[in-house]
Amino acid sequence: MVFGTHTLYVQERDDAGNWSTSGSASFDVKCTPGEYLQATNCIPCPVGSYQSLPNLNASCDAAPIGSYVLSVGSTSATTCPANSTTLATGSTQLNQCLGNEGFYSCESGVCSPADASYYSPANDNSRYACPANSYTQGSGAGADDISDCLAGIDFYNQDGDAATAPLAVGAGFYSAYRNDSRTACTNVPANATSVIYSGSGGGSNNCPISSVLTCSPGFTPAGISCSDNSPSSIIFTNLTNHQLNSLATSNEVALSGFDGPLTATCSDCADIARNGAWAGGTTLTGFMPGDTIAIRRNSAMSYSTDVIATVTLGVTTSSNWVITSRAPYSCNVAPWGNIAHNSGVTAYSEATPLPTSLCATLSEVRTCNDGVLSGSFAHSTCQNGCSATPWGNVTHGYSNSAYQTASVAYGQTCVSQARVCSNGTMSGSYTFTSCTVPACVANVGQSCATSNTGYYQHIDYADGFTCEVQKGNAGEVAPCANPSAGYVFAFKQCSGPRLDCAQTQLGTVKCNGTCN
Predict the structure, then answer these.
(1) pLDDT, tens digit, for every residue of 410-460?
(2) CB–CB of 190/219 below 8 Å?
(3) 69 or 482: whose pLDDT is higher?
(4) What is the pLDDT of residue 473?
(5) What is the C-alpha R_g of the chain?
(6) H or E stretch including 79?
(7) Is pLDDT above 90 for 512?
(8) CA separation for the pair 416, 244 (Å, rounded)
(9) Is the peptide bond before 44 cis (omega within 30 degrees of 0)?
(10) What is the pTM of this model?
(11) Other C-beta atoms within 10 Å of 39: how many?
């Protein structure tokens, strides 16, 4: 069948010989992946090209730049090794993959870096040696041209021509790695005015120095340095918190950095020592390197006061040696805690005295003097008591209950309040220390008459009427022969003989004979 798009027409005939309506369907006949259509035939893609899908194309796709197709009938292109590319589309071989800047030998399937002594231009599978003592960055754009070949450590390019081998920088100069220029060394020993170098700086400003030096006055050449004829620093450790007006001795300082015997003179001190032997005066001769020196003097007679002493050896004067006398001691006494020197506190002999001894008459000021607190009173606070209370004289903090009245009628409740003494003031106003309630007397053993259910009231005997029981509702006021009396239904039913009126004049009586 011819390659391309085709239409198929179909009819059916039934048993009676009748034909159905025509139907149709379209379909494509394509070449398989790796082929293309030429006239009416599918042809394999030639090398350098490929076809990845079924198609009716008249040609195959050329291998893109950076890839190649090695075989006919290919369905894809092969990507060149990393750091390589091709010069055009349609490449057919791996060796057409050429190294990028600073890479070479890509035809092996893996591109190699040029390395530090070589360079490799872009699109080149070869590398080329740098001139002696010059180097590239080893790969990439820093290794793709001879101009990337720069001088190594302590070499430089005198004429600026990258193709020329660099020269040694010479004594007194240095050059860093991959640097075509050279720089004069400036490292000079301390206290030297001139120096002769014996070599180059090893890539940094640190050229070797010969033993030929010119030193500043007071200093002597010693190998490749200038030795000080005066002692090195003499530093004494300051003393603090020293006892008043007492002898203080400095630390011993080892001496160095000078030549020959020297004389030490002490200023504002009492004595001077060499190697632990005290001179008994302020001047001592014969100090040599390796000896130790120390001085001593008295501290101040007043608190927190500095005194200063120094020593001079040859042309060197020591640091100020400062002796600070101690600060006055504070007092740490309960219950006040820490009390500063010269500070005072008010103390009391009692904390809660009776009103007959007021706090103002029981106090004293206690003052701290260098750790010793004057006085003897031991209380930090004092609270006055209260006088003329219902309970007499009481101390601070005393509390009790007082009553509004000394007694109340039967059935009433005593009213009380709490009264507290606080630093001379008594709270509250009630003045009675006790309160009584009358007792109720009832004939126990007699009981109420049997009545109807509900609540009842009794007629008071004092009214002169016969006692009677009437039924009513709780709290209801009952009718009465004496209108001035108020009777309330307040008693529940009980059984047994009714109470005699004479027992009710003492108060309300329950059916069990006890007071309500």
Answers:
(1) 778 999 999 999 999 999 999 999 999 876 543 333 333 333 334 444 433
(2) no
(3) 69
(4) 54
(5) 62
(6) strand 78-79
(7) no
(8) 68
(9) no
(10) 0.43
(11) 8
Of 36, 38, 40, nearest to 60 (Cα)? 36
Q: How confident is residue 25, by pLDDT bands cut at 50, 70 and 90?
A: low
DSSP β-bridge partners for residue 300: none
Burial per residue of 106-124, b for 16 or more beta-carbon CB atoms within 10 angstroms, e otherwise: bbeeebbbbbbbbbbbeeb
Higher pLDDT, 473 or 468: 473
Q: Determine which helix (DSSP H) or strand (DSSP E) holds 472, and give its type and residue range.
A: strand 470-472
* pLDDT at res. 3: 66
Handedness of CA 16, 21, 22, 25 (dihedral sign): negative
Torsion-angle region of 169 (φ positive above 0: left; ψ -120 to 50: alpha; else: beta):
alpha
Q: Residue 238 — very low, low, confident or very high, per pLDDT cuts 50/70/90?
A: very high
CA 386 to chain centre: 56
- In one-letter notation, the amino acid at residue 161 is D
Half-sphere exposure in the Cβ direction for 303 (13 Å, CA):
8
Residue type, 192: A
Q: How far apart are CA 382 and CA 368, in angstroms?
A: 21
What angle (nearest 5°) sits at the alpha carbon of residue 426, between those of residues 424 and 430? 160
Q: Burial letters for 288-298: b for 16+ Cβ neighbours within 10 Å, e otherwise?
A: eeebebbbbbb
- Per-residue HEC secondary structure of 140-160 comes to HHHHCCHHHCEECCCEECCCC
Tokens of 96: 């057409």
pLDDT (tens digit per residue) in 75-133: 999 999 999 999 999 999 999 999 999 999 999 999 999 999 999 999 999 999 999 99
The residue behind tokens 């509390």 is: 399
Q: What does the block give as tokens for 449? A: 């008459």
> pLDDT of 349-393, one tens digit each?
999 888 878 888 899 999 999 999 999 999 999 999 998 899 999
Least Cα distance to 224 among 193, 189, 250 occurs for 189
Write the CB contacts of 202 (distance below 8 Å, at least 6 apart in sequence): 153, 154, 174
Residue type, 241: N
Question: Which string of DSSP letters, residue by residue, matches 12-43?
Answer: -B-TTS-B---EEEEEEE-BPTTEEEETTEEE
> Residue 97 contacts by C-beta under 8 Å, 6 or more apart in sequence?
66, 68, 80, 81, 84, 85, 86, 91, 106, 107
Contacts of 384 by beta carbon, 8 Å cutoff, 6+ apart: 353, 355, 358, 359, 396, 423, 424
- The residue whose two tokens read 């006892």 is 243
3 state DSSP class of 424:
coil
In this prediction, residue 24 has a pLDDT band, given cuts at 50, 70 and 90, of low
Alpha helix stretches (DSSP H) within 283-362: none
For 107, the 3-state DSSP assignment is: helix
Spatial CA neighbour of 215 closest among 186, 236, 195, 240: 195
